[in-house]
Amino acid sequence: MVSAQPCTGRHLRGLARFNAAPPTAATTLLLGCCGSHRWAERVSAHRPYPTVDSLLAAADEAGYDLSGAELDAALARETAAPPPPDAPPAARTALDAGLAAYQGRFGHAFVISLDGVAPAERLDRVLAAIRSRLGNEKEEERVVAADELRRLTRARIRCSINASPVRPECDE
Fold first, then answer.
1. DSSP secondary structure letters along 102-168
2. What's the pLDDT band for 11 if we cut at 50, 70, 90?
3. Are residues 124 and 87 in contact, defined by beta-carbon separation less than 8 angstroms?
4. Other C-beta atoms within 10 Å of 68: how many?
5. pLDDT tens digits for 113-143?
6. Is residue 172 part of a domain?
7. What is the distance, to the nearest Å, from the Cα of residue 9 to the centroid of all Cα atoms in its chain?
8. I want to staple 48 with a disulfide (CB 3.0 to 4.6 A). Which of 19, 25, 97, 109 is the partner?
9. How many domains is the chain built from?
């Protein structure tokens, strides 16, 4: 959920730089947040955004408008995050097995937004979500994956706007 509080000065400086960036730089930054070219071009083309919240709303709207093929392309560009370096071997094995089962069943990497989840809880959250979502029907999981991709994209945009207006390095 987006905060109704006004943006911090850092957000505004980052947003101003994003709004002023050349179209190719803005599109490249956005492609680092969501792998759909049409989505990135659409969000970039509607600049300038008056607030970060308006940018996030436009990103959501463009995400909801992705065709099936565009969603497939965006999901195909996703990769599963590695486990934390201090994860026990059993947890690494469970994660690898779960991710492989998910990819085999649904044909794309497992996507989940961990925005707001404490680092110590992330591995458990991912493992539980994989177990739960493996039971979904393919179309049901497609809806869940699309929603998680939108949430992940929002977090990446916030990170990118805070970090730099022209670097596509989005951390999650």
1. HHHHHSS------TT--HHHHHHHHHHHHHHHTTS-HHHHHHHHHHHHHHHHHHHHHHHHHH-SS--
2. low
3. no
4. 9
5. 998 999 999 999 999 999 999 999 999 999 9
6. no
7. 24
8. 19
9. 2
Query: Tokens 């939108």, residue?
Result: 150
For residue 80, give the DSSP letter.
Answer: P
116 φψ region: left (φ > 0), alpha (ψ -120 to 50), beta (else): left
Q: Is residue 110 part of a domain?
A: yes
Q: Give the pLDDT confidence score for residue 18 in this predicted structure.
A: 96
Asked if residue 94 and residue 69 are part of one domain, the reply reads no
Kindly indicate the confidence band of residue 26, based on its pLDDT and cuts at 50, 70 and 90.
very high
In a domain, 168, yes or no: no
- Write out the two tokens for 172: 């999650």
Q: Which amino acid is at 86?
A: D
